[in-house]
Amino acid sequence: MTMLAWNLSFLVLKEKEYNHKDYEFFDNLIQSVKSYMKFYNEYRPHETLKNKTPNQFEEKFYTNELNKKTTIIS
Questions:
Q1: Is the dihedral of CA 35, 10, 40, 4 positive or negative?
Q2: CB contact set of 9 (below 8 Å; sequence gap of 6+)
Q3: Average pLDDT, whole number, for the chain?
Q4: pTM over 0.85
Protein backbone atom coordinates (compact mmCIF):
# COMPACT_ATOMS: atom_id res chain seq x y z
CA MET A 1 0.00 0.00 0.00
CA THR A 2 1.40 3.39 -0.92
CA MET A 3 1.84 6.08 1.70
CA LEU A 4 -0.95 8.12 0.09
CA ALA A 5 -3.35 5.15 0.17
CA TRP A 6 -2.43 4.46 3.79
CA ASN A 7 -3.00 8.11 4.74
CA LEU A 8 -6.37 8.15 3.01
CA SER A 9 -7.36 4.91 4.76
CA PHE A 10 -6.37 6.42 8.08
CA LEU A 11 -8.41 9.56 7.39
CA VAL A 12 -11.47 7.46 6.58
CA LEU A 13 -10.97 5.44 9.77
CA LYS A 14 -10.59 8.60 11.79
CA GLU A 15 -13.67 10.23 10.27
CA LYS A 16 -15.99 7.20 10.26
CA GLU A 17 -15.00 5.46 13.47
CA TYR A 18 -12.78 7.31 15.90
CA ASN A 19 -14.30 10.81 15.80
CA HIS A 20 -17.82 9.61 16.56
CA LYS A 21 -17.24 7.46 19.62
CA ASP A 22 -16.02 7.86 23.17
CA TYR A 23 -13.83 5.03 24.40
CA GLU A 24 -13.70 4.23 28.07
CA PHE A 25 -10.77 1.83 27.70
CA PHE A 26 -7.89 1.60 25.25
CA ASP A 27 -8.85 -2.01 24.48
CA ASN A 28 -12.25 -0.78 23.27
CA LEU A 29 -10.51 1.57 20.85
CA ILE A 30 -8.26 -1.23 19.56
CA GLN A 31 -11.24 -3.54 19.04
CA SER A 32 -13.15 -0.80 17.26
CA VAL A 33 -10.22 -0.09 14.91
CA LYS A 34 -9.80 -3.81 14.14
CA SER A 35 -13.49 -4.14 13.43
CA TYR A 36 -13.52 -1.14 11.11
CA MET A 37 -10.40 -2.33 9.28
CA LYS A 38 -12.07 -5.69 8.64
CA PHE A 39 -15.17 -3.93 7.30
CA TYR A 40 -13.07 -1.52 5.19
CA ASN A 41 -10.94 -4.27 3.61
CA GLU A 42 -13.42 -7.13 3.30
CA TYR A 43 -16.90 -5.66 2.86
CA ARG A 44 -16.73 -2.05 1.66
CA PRO A 45 -16.42 -1.72 -2.14
CA HIS A 46 -14.23 1.16 -3.33
CA GLU A 47 -15.05 3.10 -6.45
CA THR A 48 -11.35 3.60 -7.18
CA LEU A 49 -10.92 -0.20 -7.15
CA LYS A 50 -13.71 -0.72 -9.71
CA ASN A 51 -16.24 -1.37 -6.92
CA LYS A 52 -14.21 -4.17 -5.40
CA THR A 53 -13.09 -4.44 -1.82
CA PRO A 54 -9.35 -4.01 -1.21
CA ASN A 55 -9.06 -7.74 -0.50
CA GLN A 56 -10.84 -8.65 -3.76
CA PHE A 57 -8.68 -6.22 -5.71
CA GLU A 58 -5.47 -7.56 -4.19
CA GLU A 59 -6.50 -11.17 -4.82
CA LYS A 60 -7.23 -10.41 -8.47
CA PHE A 61 -3.93 -8.55 -8.82
CA TYR A 62 -1.86 -11.42 -7.45
CA THR A 63 -3.80 -14.00 -9.46
CA ASN A 64 -3.06 -12.01 -12.63
CA GLU A 65 0.61 -11.67 -11.67
CA LEU A 66 0.87 -15.42 -11.02
CA ASN A 67 -0.77 -16.12 -14.40
CA LYS A 68 1.73 -13.82 -16.12
CA LYS A 69 4.68 -15.63 -14.53
CA THR A 70 3.23 -19.04 -15.38
CA THR A 71 2.77 -17.97 -19.02
CA ILE A 72 6.37 -16.71 -19.23
CA ILE A 73 7.75 -19.95 -17.74
CA SER A 74 5.61 -22.23 -19.97
A1: negative
A2: 1, 40
A3: 78
A4: no
